[in-house]
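hi! just following up on the protien thing from before. the input was this:
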Amino acid sequence: MNPENEAEQPATRAERRRQEAEHTEAHNRHVEEVEDAILAATETEAVPSDSASAPVEPSPEAAPAAQAEAKAATKAQQKAAAKAVAEGEAKPSADEPATNRVLREIMNGPIVLTLLAVLVSFIIGGILIALTNSDVQETAGYFFAQPGDFFGAVWSSVSGAYSSLFQGAIYNFGRDDFASGIRPLTDTLTYATPLIAAGLGVGLAFRVGLFNIGGRGQMLVAAAAAGWVGFSFPMPMWIHLPVAILAGLAAGAIWGGIVGFLKARTGAHEVILTIMLNYIAFYLISFMLRTQGLLQAPGSVNPKSPPMLETAVLPAILGPNYKLHAGFIIVVLATAGVWWLLNRSSTGFRFRAVGTNPNAALVAGVNVKSTYVWAMALAGGLVGLAGVMQILGTTPDGLTSGIDAGIGFDAITVALLGRSRPWGIFAAGILFGAFKAGGFAMQAAEGVSVDIVGVVQSLIVLFIAAPPLIRAIFFIPSADGKLKRRPLRRNSKAVSA
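and the predicted 3d structure came back as:
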């Protein structure tokens, strides 16, 4: 390399940096000039009134300073106004009618937003039903020739599907008597019973700031414990049934308490712990169901336990013609108990304090580690109650490794839909029980896939988790009455051009 070029390189780099700095400074100065020109163009001159007295002429020495100060104040006011408009800080007037404020608060309430989310989900579900219907697809081929056939097919498919969903979940108008027509409602409550119990466990953990996705494992161990007591120890019913239920609750509480203990002592994340314990519980119960002397029925080669003794089976509430059993009453009592625990007890206050801010709760004297253990134990016991309802009420003919039926994961959706509130979870569980009971009727009567029901359920949770989206769809102002607009951003490249 030439030594002269090497000597010139530092000077060349310095010259390049100087030119870049000059170019940047010139660009910034040009942008400021353009901004000043825009601000000057938007200024409005005050028109003096005829009745106003003439202002006192300032001295020539004070005129430049006064003009500069007035110009700066005008710029500041214009920038503040532009910022307020860009951020959408339009506040309601002080003389706004009280009726408007009350109506706005009602429309922004969780109940109304939830109902609107369900409505939107049903509308989208109806669109999917129409798109997958064969008659709609056929009439769409000659839509411009006879559009009435297309819209008639759409209405027939959607109305028929939702009518079948209602009759399969609430009341069947095709039955001869009221006792037969009300049977779908009892099926809905039967399906909802374990969903509510498991949802209470997941929602309780949510309130403490824990994400309990170990419902499957907690249900399996609880069902195994309750089932083992149910078929192994003949006792009077007034002793046998409570002991079997308590055994299932204790097993679920221990399985959930393990998660809380490990999180409190080691700091392990509860999501990882619950996922791993799900697998442990599944393979452990599967092994026990294939092993003679443990849970497998004597003399059988199938992975299934013996049926429950009659003294350990939850009695039917409305008689043998209906599936609804006493587990629904237990779930109602459990919902009331969880509500009292969270809202009326000192333990619930500690749970909510830790869930809101564990550091602040620790400073206030709350034992956060102990709270984690107790919260997960109670959550595991409530989810385990769902397993108890399954083995002692819904399927008392024997325990299998699939007795959870996906309820442990559906409980997460139920808890989210119920906003982790006990009675909200109760209502969400009944809604999802209706979907499960009516989905089969909809498929049998109209040929609509059960997966459509799953899509509707997912959409409900999606819209519940996004209240601003619901407010935007129905043009509902926010609770504070502010108009939310997208902030306006100034494009520097366009200005400089």
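Residues 194-445 form a domain with the ABC transporter involved in vitamin B12 uptake, BtuC fold (CATH 1.10.3470).
The CA atoms of residues 228 and 322 lie 26 Å apart.
cheers
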